Hints:
By secondary structure, the protein is α/β, with parallel strands linked by helices.
Amino acid sequence: MKLSKTNYLVYRDCAHNAWVKVHKPEIYHAEPLSVFERAIIEIGNDVDVRARELFPGGVLIRRGDAAGTAELVAARTPVLYQPVFETERYTTACDILVWNGAGRAYDLYEVKASTSGEDRKAKDDLYAHDIAFQAHVLSENGVPLGRLHLVRLNGDYVSNGTLDLTRLFTREDFTDRVTPIFEAVRAEMDAAHDLIQLAALPAPPCACIYKGRSSQCTTFAHINPEVPDYSIHDLTRIGTSPKKLRALVDAGILSITDIPADFELTLPQRHQVEAAQRRRPFVELPPLQSFLDDIAFPVAFLDYETYPCALPRFAGYAPFNHVPFQFSLHVLMHAGAEPVHHEFLYTEAHCPDAPFVAALKATLPPEGAIVVWNKPFEKGINTKLAERLPAEQAFLAAVNERIVDLMDVFSEQMVVHPGFRGKTSIKWVLPALVPRLSYKGLAIQEGATASETWNAIVTGALEPEEAREAVQNLLTYCGLDSLAMLEIWRALQTIVADRDIREAG
């Protein structure tokens, strides 16, 4: 059984998960790819195809055609796209190989759908191991290798309405990053290859037992069945406290309800544990009261939907800048008033910036609080809109000054509910505080699906009837987001008013 580059990278993250992927694909793929995961794959494919234009005239290799690749390499074909290489133990496909006549060798170019401005250290380490794996397999095939390059999107590039590929992409020489880890990668490759030959899953637990929930492998529950669904791994920010997590695991404490009272935790973690153990909410009334008192009428509950476009589609956009295409707004003019709902959805193929801001100006009250969930997102969208629409800078700056983040109530632990499970997402908070409202049953239940639905509409991928249905689905989903904030705010008002709920402790 040959080890692929993909499975090697899975092994580096979790060896047990790599074994399950190879031997139990029905378990590894039990959960279908999410819309977000499928979008990431499609974005990667799109970026890879466009990057080939930097090296025109190449030959595209058929999937799995190692023999055809070998013939083209022997003939010193100048440019190869997706060449395939195999040994007795390993298999890989490269993105682009370019013959360097001066060096009498092939330069390798690995293409990534990421930007040059993102968190570099972890990504660069991953990419270096990725390239090193390929380099080993190519070397075993007798391919003369020159320099090893990474091609990725330039985070500083801003489109003028057309794509300048020479500026859109960066080409970085990774040879000096790969060389120091070359031998270590070979040892890892051998270990990973040997592991996937095993007839049985290695004894649990997997290494992810010492990681927070968001960092665990995809088959963690299968590999570690003794870990409960709501466990110590769900403690808020436990992933940043590896010693604390390790101490609990090594003591055999896995359920969040079994954490002893004398175990050292941060105050937010302790509140979460107590809420789970007592099966009732923890409420800090004074800060919650103060937070709610600072929300001035009229109150506008505002939610944006956006599309993160990897390849800039409009002038003024950089790679992965979000295209704001929709908002929903519920407005309460005064206490006791009935909410007024406004909504905007742009479904043309042109840039929605100006219509989006015009609709905001027409529907937002000129004063009062603007309540959002996770304010860095909406404020960031407004800041980028102001950069692209200088005439609207004053309006958008004023909007940002009025924004209040309802998520602060939960991230700052003013209210801790056992149903939150340490999460602060509206998808967790809503069913716990307002159980009569739910995203379940909606055609669109989260933002990634909303983004991809909009993209399908504006790119003409849907038939007219499908597009009309998709528009209604988008309006329903975004409308629930702003309504959910309104109803959560009302639930918090009720908590403060209900003096039967006392400050915990």
